[in-house]
Design brief:
The complex is a heterodimer of chains A (about 650) and B (about 80). Chain A has about 650 residues and is an alpha+beta fold. Chain A contains 26 helices and 17 strands. Chain A has three domains: about 5-205, Aldehyde ferredoxin oxidoreductase, N-terminal domain (Aldehyde Ferredoxin Oxidoreductase,  A, domain 1); about 235-400, Orthogonal Bundle (Aldehyde Ferredoxin Oxidoreductase Protein, subunit A, domain 2); about 435-635, Aldehyde Ferredoxin Oxidoreductase Protein, subunit A, domain 3 (Orthogonal Bundle).
Chain lengths: ~650, ~80
């Protein structure tokens, strides 16, 4: 099958059995890889009462249709499981070199089942697939282990690892690769740790079958030439995402001191310019990319070892920096390194530690909880102490290891009001009180709050910031188009930044696979994935669905106290209006339950049958569901 | 004086390029800041993250010189 490796691997970690099956063509065309394969496989195979950290959960690693093709930046690979943070479908993807290596070894999906009796790592060298002992690696940091395994196996192996946090089940643990690329969100690292799978090492030397190689080569060459001379290429290469720190502050959406406010007085000391001036070592790219937007940095802090890390990116600066009140780019880079080596998502870590700092400020967490340390805003030593306690699940670190929602449930005292999370996953680095569509994006996201599902800040402005009207359709459009890149597995920055259109990516898929595919079909696949993950969430967590799409009190009620967005808050009535509008435009009922009509349009009637059996199928619309879903919701000038 | 503004993505559409695919040529009076130029073009500042001039980052209070080319970077989520 053109465009695919051709084989699905199933690895029973308990018995050691390894099975190979051909990748079904209907799975490939119908779900397109990565996020799609993960959604379909988890829905069909994981028992609804399976413990996310128990043996019945699956861990899935899957590249997408574009991974490994010398098409625009097909570097990505997805990881999926039931999330220990949200108890729902999870997928999280990473760039780097791993995805292409897996595809070149011939694999479209690797499904890890059950739990290994001893720590192991997966070794893939083309057709050689083995589980090897990893007892000597257990306990090592993610970055340290990658270096060690490169020394042990050779530079041409691509390595993915977990750190101590993943071994210990911290619900926001990540999987790390290429010394700083992460499948960061949803706690995929904790599920890998629960299976006692410490690492994955892959070398692939096969070729990837391409349907029309001359056409794909020419189209890709044209895109390279065009984007190389694009006016925005140079700023991206020079600064990466960190340059948006200034913009986020100037427009009142920069999370500051646990989202207490949205303007950080010291933002210039942790800005992209500061990063370039003080900590940047070199630029770094993923497979098949000529942009080099990754920044490799060194943190130099008196009394601490110099530490090298990829980053910090905007999200890490916003959440480990702004939300924790930091004032020094070296401290942010060091916090980035700590999280990476411990195997923690920098976004949820920064958000959770900012939350803990506010608890400390309010006297809810004390020095007794922190082994004699304090937890002051902007203090890197305090940050280091608590992040290590979290990774080890020691003392208050055990409470915080559940993330902001889990910690708030354990701490009580209405701390849930200032836990910036949705469905148990922490907000990305954008406050929403002046950007209401972004709040709707977070709260309706299938994996919990994450900007890569829908980033609606500028769309919000385009529609009009202080109105709930017109927000839902644009959020739905974004929830289909942005995660589509995580299904195809190509980087979305070339779309957002360098004017490579989604239609051009679809052309590439046609050349790659020989499919007569259209963007409309791809958008429908994305909508299908969104509906099956929603159904999966409902089947695991019960109903009504509306109870899960809730916003934190801080973002609804507390007016921003300072900065450019001073005085703004969303308000409960406005949020409920947006939610009603969202459900309607999705073709879901007022409780947020998908209707049979929508599920049948999307070709998954069996999901409707399953929802009907448990009483969670949406009530039918009297006049039929809206016919404007997907691509047709795209607003003008986006 | 003459100022050339370049951009991409959604911001390119707002800029209405007339020189090439990315570039708009503008004749302006005096030495206005980029903020003032953008106001004149009715482009909300939130759609511009920063400016890039001669390989260097600049804020929107930057005042371009005659004949200078300024690249305007739209905000994009990533990381």
């Amino acid at each position: 099958m053109d465009g695919f490796g051709g084989t699905i691997l199933r690895i029973n970690l308990e018995s050691g059995e390894i099975k190979r099956t051909p990748t079904p063509e209907d799975l490939a065309r119908g779900w397109m890889g990565a996020r799609g394969f993960v959604a379909k496989t988890l829905y069909d195979e994981v028992p609804r009462d399976a413990d996310p950290l128990g043996p019945e959960n699956l861990l899935i690693m899957a590249p997408g249709v574009m991974t490994g093709a010398f098409a625009p930046c097909g570097s990505k690979i997805g990881f999926g499981c039931i999330s220990p943070a949200t108890n729902g479908h999870a997928d999280s993807n990473m760039g780097g070199m791993l995805g292409a290596e897996v595809k070149y070894a011939g694999y479209d999906m690797v499904v890890f089942e059950r739990v290994s009796p001893e720590p192991v790592y997966l070794y893939i060298d083309d057709d050689t697939v083995e589980l090897r002992p990893a007892g000597d690696y257990w306990g090592m940091g993610s970055l340290d282990l990658e270096k060690k395994m490169k020394e042990d196996l050779g530079e041409d192996f691509q390595i993915a690892t977990i750190g101590p946090a993943g071994e210990n089940g911290v619900v926001f643990s990540c999987i790390t690769h290429d010394f700083g690329r992460q499948a960061g969100r949803c706690g995929v690292g904790a599920v890998m740790g629960s299976k006692r799978l410490k690492a994955i090492a892959v070398r692939g030397t096969k070729s990837l079958p391409v349907h029309d190689l001359p056409a794909m080569t020419k189209a890709t060459y044209d895109i390279i030439q065009r984007t190389k001379s694009h006016p925005l290429m140079e700023p991206w290469q020079k600064y990466g995402t960190a340059l948006f720190v200034g913009w986020a502050n100037e427009h009142g959406c920069f999370p500051t001191k646990n989202f207490q406010t949205t303007y950080h007085e010291h933002w210039e000391s942790i800005s992209g310019e500061k990063l370039a001036e003080e900590v940047l070592v070199t630029h770094k790219a993923c497979f098949g990319c000529w942009m080099n937007c990754g920044k490799y940095s060194v943190a130099k802090i008196p009394g601490k070892p110099d530490t090298y890390v990829e980053g910090p990116e905007y999200e890490t600066i916003a959440l480990c920096g702004g939300s924790c009140g930091m004032k020094d780019i070296h401290h942010v880079a060091y916090a980035n390194w700590l999280c990476d080596n411990l195997g923690l998502d920098t976004m949820s870590s920064g958000n959770t530690i900012g939350f803990a700092m506010e608890c400390f400020e309010k006297g809810i967490i004390t020095k007794d909880d922190l082994e004699g340390h304090e937890l002051k805003w902007g203090d890197i030593d305090d940050f280091e102490n608590v992040v290590r306690m979290i990774a080890d699940r020691r003392g208050i670190g055990e409470t915080l290891s559940y993330g902001t929602k889990g910690a708030a449930e354990r701490l009580g005292q209405n701390t849930i009001a200032f836990a910036s999370q949705a469905k148990g996953m922490e907000f990305s680095g954008y406050d929403t009180r002046w950007y209401w569509a972004q709040l709707l994006s977070y709260c309706t996201s299938d994996i919990g709050a994450h900007h890569n599902r829908s980033w609606a800040i500028t769309a919000d402005v385009q529609i009009g910031q202080d109105t709930p009207k017109g927000k839902a359709p644009v959020v739905i459009y974004l929830q289909h188009i942005r995660p589509l890149f995580d299904t195809w597995c190509c980087c979305r920055l070339f779309w957002g930044e360098l004017d490579v259109t989604p239609e051009e990516h679809v052309d590439t898929i046609r050349q790659l696979t020989g499919w007569d595919v259209t963007l409309e079909e791809c958008m429908q696949v994305s909508e299908k994935i969104w509906n099956i993950t929603r159904a999966h969430y409902l089947e695991r967590n019960g109903g009504p669905g509306r109870q899960f799409d809730v916003a934190p009190a801080r973002h609804l009620d507390e007016k921003i106290p300072s900065g450019p967005a001073e005085g703004h808050a969303v308000g409960r009535e406005n949020f409920e209006y947006m939610l009603d509008d969202y459900y309607y435009n999705r073709g879901w009922d007022k409780q947020g339950h998908p209707t049979r009509e929508v599920l049948e349009i999307l070709g998954i009637p069996y999901v409707a049958d399953n929802l009907e059996k448990i009483g969670l199928l949406g009530k039918p619309f009297e006049d039929g569901v809206p016919k404007v879903r997907g691509e047709k919701l795209k607003p003008k000038a986006m | 004086m003459i100022v050339y503004l370049k951009s991409g993505g959604a911001l390119r559409e707002r800029l209405r390029p007339d020189v090439d695919h990315y570039t708009r040529r503008l004749e302006v009076d005096g030495t206005p800041s980029l903020k003032e130029i953008l106001d004149g073009l009715e482009i909300p500042l939130v759609f511009v993250a920063f400016a890039f001039v001669n390989g260097k980052f600049e804020h929107l209070d930057y005042r371009p010189a005659d004949g200078e080319t300024v690249t305007l970077q739209p905000p994009v989520a990533g990381g």
